[in-house]
Amino acid sequence: MISSLKERRTIRKYLNKDIDEQLLNELLETAFRAPTTQNMQVYSVVITREQENKEKLAPAHFNQPTVTSAPVVLTFCADFNRFIKWCEQNHAEPGYDNFQSFVTAAIDALLVAQQFCTVAEISGLGCCYLGTTTYNAPQIAEILHLPKFVIPITTLTVGYPADIPAQIERLPIGAILHHEAYQDYTPEAIHRLYFEKENLAENKKYIEENHKENLAQVFTDVRSPRKDNELFSKTFLDFIVKQGFRLPD
Amino acid sequence: MISSLKERRTIRKYLNKDIDEQLLNELLETAFRAPTTQNMQVYSVVITREQENKEKLAPAHFNQPTVTSAPVVLTFCADFNRFIKWCEQNHAEPGYDNFQSFVTAAIDALLVAQQFCTVAEISGLGCCYLGTTTYNAPQIAEILHLPKFVIPITTLTVGYPADIPAQIERLPIGAILHHEAYQDYTPEAIHRLYFEKENLAENKKYIEENHKENLAQVFTDVRSPRKDNELFSKTFLDFIVKQGFRLPD
């Protein structure tokens, strides 16, 4: 079991085969057993199966082909709308229109998304996360009719794998772990920890294709340049506020 | 396998039994196979095993007894420090000092935390999330010596279960799922979806103990009142900025 999770990989290409509704519900119900802050379950999941609706979502995900080719697209949302409505209906005064409550709901949504990904993979399905969800949250919210206090946090495309790609590399675990306190990285440590990653044939190909000097420049200049990150920062933070989560003074 | 994940529960009390270092590393290495944005792995994990250090962390987690009684405490951090150092060392210009990059790193850290929780549970360990991590991030960062661009996002206490508590309730899956678009909740739907939760003996006990009229008021008045949420909002957002993730103008 553990070994299968160690062998897991992201699946972007799917067979033309639907996911049975009963199976999907079973997987979702299992995922909803993921830990949640104070057992509030301040998240919602929007299921997109209709081709027409996948095509509406695709541009918000920069037309990654996985969106329109997956049988199921799941948008995981931070959701305080339902909980606030429940409070108001019970003459309880909700104080959740703030940044920390947004963070709480986002954490809930992400833990559930990852639990869904795991149970889907264990069941022979493949998944792909779309990081574009927070970049284009306002567009996605409009397409999915998300009300105040609901914010899309991540998206999973799900389907039966068309093929199993090679597993990609990870940093050595020593790069990630710190014992008792954070030990900051010396230049030598950075060099050693990224050495294998920099020298993989696949990564060398990206450097060449993008006419860069090294892999780091592929990230900073091509994959997530400053101007994109700054634009998406403004879009997302403005949207958090628009949806009702006020920033502190 | 799926059925064991459906039966999972949070474990707060542990046997007085250490976790073998080789096992812990194996679980962490498996967790680091969780999906990560652009395979950047912008997270770090600080392992606390020393009793003295657990006692230092405990007040930041409001002295929840699970912190000092667990053999292992793991603090999962959003970490762009390592990646930025790698970029700078390669004459690549990092543009990650912004809110969206913080969000990316926080997502990475949370997916890894949940993957760790799952592999630990599958291996017979029990875990408890500490939502206090984002409330008292500055204190935790000081204790763990977290540098610029590193922010604690969540904490897991881990150990062998001392007992297996009853599984707590979840909302019916219909409360969480939306097909094709978000269907907002009518007052009748809210009443129906929360009915079972409101009427559980355990939840009725909380109402009585706290001298409240109903369960919603236990949340709004006792568990997360407005003034706490607003204080923690300010503390956390100020800390995000202090650690180098600028807010948009």
From TrEMBL, chains A, B:
Classification via Pfam families: Nitroreductase
Q: Which Gene3D superfamilies match?
A: NADH Oxidase
- Keyword NADP listed? The answer is yes
Domain Nitroreductase per the UniProt entry, residue ranges: 5-160
InterPro entries for this protein: Flavin_OxRdtase_Frp, Nitroreductase, Nitroreductase-like
Superkingdom of origin organism: Bacteria
Arranged from A to Z, the UniProt key words for this protein are: Flavoprotein, FMN, NADP, Oxidoreductase
Give one GO molecular function term. oxidoreductase activity
Entry's family note? Belongs to the flavin oxidoreductase frp family.
Q: What name has this protein been given in UniProt?
A: Nitroreductase domain-containing protein
